[in-house]
Design goal:
alpha+beta; 4 helices; Nucleotide Exchange Factor Grpe, Chain A, domain 2; elongated; three-stranded antiparallel β-sheet; three-stranded mixed β-sheet
Length: 174
């Protein structure tokens, strides 16, 4: 610095500096408020984006489950046929290995479905009829079961997680 510049800085009176200090304080306060507004806006946008991402993830998971359900429905009749074949197994001892093979195929199919969170509904005769997960094929008089109890499961129902992909077909007592 030159000597002339130094003299100008030293010659400023406190009255001349005070208005600059007040304006600087006001500007500082204004910038702090602006900073808080920007921070608040950023936090809101981050929360909004996190909610959007969570909603998209849920939608994608739901879509994946619906697609899986459509593909799994294709294999459910095969499981039904295997179950029916085991209900009418031959009494001939020579067929024991055939019966065991059918049981293994059914178990393998059910385990493959279970690996994808697909599971059969656990419904037994005597359980109460639930129209949310079951479809009544008949309502009939029965001496063994009371009104609304399941007499027989005709076709197994299946779930993906907690969503019904196929209701169970049942006979219901009245």
């Amino acid at each position: 610095m030159t000597e002339d510049t130094e003299n100008k800085n030293e010659t400023l009176l406190p009255e001349e500096v005070t208005p600059d200090l007040a304006s600087l304080k006001a500007e500082n306060e204004e910038l702090r408020k602006q900073n808080e507004d920007y921070l608040d806006s950023l936090q809101r946008e981050r929360a909004s984006f996190a909610n959007y991402k969570r909603r998209i993830d849920l939608d994608n998971a739901s879509y994946a489950d619906r697609l899986l359900a459509e593909h799994v429905k294709f294999f459910l009749p095969v499981a039904d046929d295997l179950e029916r074949s085991l209900l009418h197994r031959p009494e001939d001892p020579e067929c024991a290995s055939w019966i065991m093979g059918i049981e293994l195929i059914l178990q393998k199919l059910l385990k493959s479905l279970e690996a994808k969170d697909v599971r059969p509904m656990d419904i037994k005769p005597g359980d109460m009829f639930d129209p949310n997960t079951q479809e009544a094929v008949t309502h009939e008089e029965n001496d063994t079961y009371t009104n609304g109890q399941i007499i027989e499961v005709i076709q197994t129902g299946y779930l993906i997680k907690d969503r019904v992909i196929r209701p169970a077909l049942v006979r219901v007592a009245k």
